[in-house]
């Protein structure tokens, strides 16, 4: 299980870093510059709107915020206090801005941390948060919490997400990613992990505030069926045009599962394809990478790719994976006792 936990965190970081230079660009622009599919890490070009002149292999907010969530889970013995998460995210954004970064908090999280700072009760701060910020940083919850009891896992997703993303749409999306990671750690294939994700999305959709938006569970099932059997480059066009690659949970999260269904047995090709889609493709690749890494273990990625993200970014993902697995072990022990 250790290799799978590390695979989830490194997969997230690898996908994120691959998508760093392509994020927020149109697919047409990505194809013109890099070809139909990326072949590896690339630097952020000077005209990259969010990550100009960043070194090849640099991770972005997705990995940094997932690590932040992971660290808070470890510090809290498996639980996260919503106000603590909000203050840590705010501190993270300030540190990023001080470093001159343009990669700051997304729309839902930004609104939520401002509301928390203004004294709005935490039950209210995430009531309009429907974008993919919770799903992009939730993988550590999937490592720390066993998935056999899906409602219990969804409870922990809500605990780690609701301060900024307290809507059925966003909680369904985050539940899907966490459940897929958790199932992967238990040895599920991509196909089985996707089924768990759909079940968890149905549960998550009933949590938080209702907000208009397509059904995440239905869209994951639809998006994976849509690309079944298609050549990868045709699938990429279809995901881009029909599923969508925006920061909205209803697009980017089904897109990540669609990519996985194109390459269920090849995590590296899956993240390369995801990072080539356009739109919020660093986040799509980060979510796909976390799930693929959980399913296949860290050995599913080229050693050189793992070494690159480890060397370029000062992140101790190996240690965090071990700590999150300890929490999972404790949770399983407690369940057995009951
Ligand atoms: Mg990002």
TrEMBL record:
Q: Which UniProt keywords apply?
A: Hydrolase
Q: Would the keyword Hydrolase turn up in this protein's UniProt record?
A: yes
This protein's source sits in the domain of life called Bacteria
Q: Which Pfam families match?
A: ADP_ribosyl_GH
Q: Family per UniProt?
A: Belongs to the ADP-ribosylglycohydrolase family.
Identify this protein by name. ADP-ribosylglycohydrolase family protein
